[in-house]
UniProtKB/TrEMBL annotation:
<protein>
    <submittedName>
        <fullName>Ribosomal RNA small subunit methyltransferase I</fullName>
    </submittedName>
</protein>
<dbReference type="InterPro" id="IPR008189">
    <property type="entry name" value="rRNA_ssu_MeTfrase_I"/>
</dbReference>
<dbReference type="InterPro" id="IPR014776">
    <property type="entry name" value="4pyrrole_Mease_sub2"/>
</dbReference>
<dbReference type="GO" id="GO:0006364">
    <property type="term" value="P:rRNA processing"/>
</dbReference>
<keyword id="KW-0808">Transferase</keyword>
<keyword id="KW-0949">S-adenosyl-L-methionine</keyword>
<dbReference type="GO" id="GO:0008168">
    <property type="term" value="F:methyltransferase activity"/>
</dbReference>
<keyword id="KW-0489">Methyltransferase</keyword>
<dbReference type="InterPro" id="IPR000878">
    <property type="entry name" value="4pyrrol_Mease"/>
</dbReference>
<dbReference type="GO" id="GO:0032259">
    <property type="term" value="P:methylation"/>
</dbReference>
<keyword id="KW-0698">rRNA processing</keyword>
<dbReference type="InterPro" id="IPR035996">
    <property type="entry name" value="4pyrrol_Methylase_sf"/>
</dbReference>
<keyword id="KW-0963">Cytoplasm</keyword>
<feature type="domain" description="Tetrapyrrole methylase">
    <location>
        <begin position="95"/>
        <end position="226"/>
    </location>
</feature>
<dbReference type="Pfam" id="PF00590">
    <property type="entry name" value="TP_methylase"/>
</dbReference>
<dbReference type="InterPro" id="IPR014777">
    <property type="entry name" value="4pyrrole_Mease_sub1"/>
</dbReference>
Length: 257
């Protein structure tokens, strides 16, 4: 008699709170629905950016929903570092081996350090591999910083583009900003990007030097936290003393007409 093959598990895209790297944390039940927390607690096999932060997340989940297995017994596989640096679609990475547990009938969770995995974070190669393997992909509900910032910006939410990180070099950054501004003013398309907290001051300075006076600039930081700051002003208004995000809080930037 042939042994029946196990039913395939599913790939769950598990969002996490946006307070990674912040000095304060929001109660996890304030930012993640009960269903998302319950599903995260039921998963024992994980693919992630960083195992340490994944365990920290699961510890927070376990404070409200008992984990299916203790932290030392959780199976946590990290995406290779080159996938982080080059991006899933430029690295040629094959995510199929990371989904072996799903082919054996176990659900697998994909997780990033903050927000929705595979959106402005690594993980799309794993999602693509899941589709190629015939696995069901299930995105769970949770915070997505780009959409929260866009919705609160007053900029065009029907035509927008996320452009990742901007160049670190000041001259290259200025050139890129002028390109994005030209596109935004010509098409009405909102341009969004993110920045590492310690470069927030340099980013704001570069924006105010490079952009036209009437271009609208929105900056959102500390999203979902009590200290949240969301500002949307013309460049002229920003130059009148508006303060940008500090050097400790991740921020989303957006420009448009």
């Amino acid at each position: 008699m042939n042994t029946p093959k196990p039913l395939k598990g599913r790939l769950f895209l598990v969002p996490t709170p946006l307070d990674f790297g912040c000095t304060e944390q929001a109660p996890i039940t304030d930012v993640l629905p009960t269903n998302t927390l319950a599903k995260a607690a039921s998963i024992q096999h994980w693919v992630c950016e960083n195992a340490k932060t994944t365990r920290a997340f699961l510890k927070r989940v376990g404070e409200t929903h008992p984990l299916i297995a203790p932290l030392p017994e959780q199976s946590i596989a990290e995406l290779p570092r080159h996938v982080h640096k080059k991006g899933d679609h430029q690295s040629g990475f094959d995510g199929k081996p990371l989904l072996a547990a799903a082919l054996q009938g176990h659900d697998v969770g994909l997780i990033s350090e903050a927000g929705m995995p595979a959106v402005a974070d690594p993980g799309s190669s794993v999602v693509r591999a899941a589709h190629d393997l015939g696995l069901t992909v299930v995105p769970l509900v949770g915070p997505v910083s780009l959409l929260l910032a866009l919705a609160a910006s007053g900029l065009n939410g029907q035509n927008f583009a996320f452009v990742g990180y901007l160049p670190q070099d000041a001259a290259e950054r200025a050139t890129r900003l002028k390109q994005l501004e030209s596109l935004a003013l010509k098409t009405g398309q909102t341009q969004l990007w993110i920045e590492t907290p310690y470069r927030n001051a340099a980013m704001l300075s570069g924006l105010l030097q490079s952009l036209q006076a009437n271009t609208r600039l929105a900056i959102a930081s500390g999203l979902t936290l009590p200290s949240v700051s969301i500002q949307s002003h013309t460049v002229t208004q920003w130059k009148k003393g508006k303060k940008g995000p500090d050097g400790h809080t991740p921020a989303v930037y957006a420009i448009g007409p």
